[in-house]
Every structure is written in C-alpha cells, then in structure tokens.
DNA sequence: ATTCTTACA
DNA sequence: TGTAAGTA
C-alpha cells in the first residue's frame, strides 16, 4: 500500500510516517516511481511505534528496540534478553524526570503560598493582571 | 488525484 | 509537525 492508505488506516499523518522512515522506524520499499510501498504488517508496526512513543521512548531507542519485540496480537512482548535492561534504563530516566518535575512544582507551590499571605499587591505589570483569554 | 523532496514558520 | 512549492 502507498503512504496515503497507511496514513488513513493508522490515523497517523503522512508527514509523521515519512519522519518515522527517516528515523529508521519503518523501511518501506520504493517503486520505480519513487513512491513508498508499505507492507501489510506496517499497519501494526506503526501502532507499536505509537505505543512505544507514548511510553516515553526516543525514536532512537525505539529503532533499536522494535526489531526485538514480538506482537502477539494485542501486547508487545520483549523477544531479546538484553531488551528488558534497556527498557529498565529508560524507566529510570523517566523516574528522574518525574522527580525533577515534582521538585519544580514544590518550588512554585512555595512561591504561590507566599503570594497568598502577602497583603500588599504591587502588581504593576498588566501582563500579570490581565484576565486569561479563552 | 497522489506522492515526492525541500524548506520555512 | 503542518504546510506550501514545483514535480513526476
């Protein structure tokens, strides 16, 4: 199938599908016309790519992990022994990112709390007092 | 009508 | 990523 059909069947933009190829996530064949020719299995592959992206993995990691994943119809299953190690490392990276965000929120909370107890309101910047547009 | 590449916002 | 341009 050509890119238009794959885009329609997966709900992913043609732009994104070409980007996935650039990132080595998909390797469609080429016709003499230059048109990309995708295999039936690519429909499932694209869905798996979306799943992995949603898991916070980079396209680089997905590229090296995708060939080691088996798809039993509904779930992705690691097929290589060293795969779980790589995934665990990414999990640790997410944990660190989450901790950083929690720390950032705590700082904002402290500043916001300080503002609530403040009596004087030297709000001179109109950008800070304007009502939210929406 | 579709797709392709390149490039800019 | 979206989109426009200029093709094949």
What does this structure look like?
The protein contains 6 helices and 4 strands; from the N terminus they run ααββααββαα. The chain is mainly alpha-helical. The protein has 2 domains: 1-80, Orthogonal Bundle (Multidrug-efflux Transporter Regulator, Chain: A, Domain 2), CATH 1.10.1660; 81-117. A hairpin with a 4-residue loop joins strand 3 (69-71) and strand 4. The two termini are 43 Å apart. The mean pLDDT is 91. The chain binds a DNA duplex (9 and 8 nucleotides) through helix 2.
What Rg do the Cα atoms give? Answer: 23 Å
* Uncertain segments: none
Please state how the strands of the largest beta sheet are arranged side by side: 1-2
Biggest beta-sheet profile: 2 strands, antiparallel
CATH topology of the largest domain: Multidrug-efflux Transporter Regulator, Chain: A, Domain 2
How many individual domains? 2
Keywords: DNA-binding
Pfam family, one: MerR_1
Protein name: MerR family transcriptional regulator
Organism: Micromonospora andamanensis
